[in-house]
């Protein structure tokens, strides 16, 4: 296993508050999946993001890695960007990695928010099927299923350019890097470590998210020292895109707490 080369993306450089460091969902660019939220944060806070291997600005890789090694790569990139302490948040796999970041460097993370994410996501069998599909047929084969998982009913019709852009980004992701991200997820179970997180722990869940069962979200929050669960109605797996104003409000309330 190796530490992947993770690249930081400056999303907003104004504001004097604590910086946000945001992580993306599998198959997305951080600038796209967090783009709708950034304007709500930017007046008060600098905002930075990071991309997964083979996604957006981060280079593709053929070497395997763990979620903990992804977190190490994020911290190396944060050091290079001059980020000391920050509020960490991530969507799906990005939330999983953000949790690992908070466990590796607790003094640097002022708050931790998992958006449509869990300490353990899905099952190894389902992830093995996903990795095999991508290696056989490429990320374009995922578009139909991802559209159904990512967005609540009616969102694609209401926001065709926004949803279409995210699905187009999925087809541009490096196939092997995507498969390796999937395998990292399959091997990760951080449920027993949530109680070790020193920072406030918030989980934002979508009421119609088929990926993140609400009972598992409730269990994760209950195991935290300072846990909070926000369930957003008519939201599926990309809450940062579907309800950016609400997600931003929750993030800023945690920073102020």
Task: Tell me the β content.
Answer: 5-15%
Give the helices and strands as they follow along the chain.
EEHHEHEHEHHHHHEHEHH
CATH topology: Rossmann fold
- Identify the overall geometry: globular
> What is the overall pLDDT average?
96
The total number of structural domains is: 1
| Poorly predicted ranges | none
- Report the structural category: alpha/beta
Distance between the termini: 38 Å
Radius of gyration: 16 Å
Helix content: 40-55%
- Describe the largest sheet: 7 strands, mixed
Just give the CATH class: Alpha Beta
CATH architecture assignment name = 3-Layer(aba) Sandwich
Count of extended strands: 7
For the largest sheet, list the strands in their spatial order.
1-3-2-4-5-6-7
What is the CATH superfamily? Answer: Alpha/Beta hydrolase fold, catalytic domain
Specify the number of helices. 12
Explained architecture:
The chain has 257 residues and is an alpha/beta fold. It has a single domain, classed as Alpha/Beta hydrolase fold, catalytic domain (Rossmann fold, 3-Layer(aba) Sandwich), CATH 3.40.50.1820. The protein contains twelve helices and seven strands. The chain has helices at residues 30-33, 38-42, 67-80, 93-104, 124-137, 143-150, 155-158, 160-172, 175-186, 214-222, 239-242, 244-256; strands at residues 8-12, 20-23, 47-50, 86-91, 109-115, 201-206, 227-232. A seven-stranded mixed sheet has the order 1-3-2-4-5-6-7, with helices on both faces. Strand 6, helix 10 and strand 7 form a beta-alpha-beta unit. Helix 3 crosses helix 4 (93-104). The longest helix is centred in the first third of the chain and has 14 residues, at 67-80. The chain is globular and about 45 Å long. The protein starts with 7 loop residues before the first strand and ends with a helix. The model has no long low-confidence stretch (mean pLDDT 96).
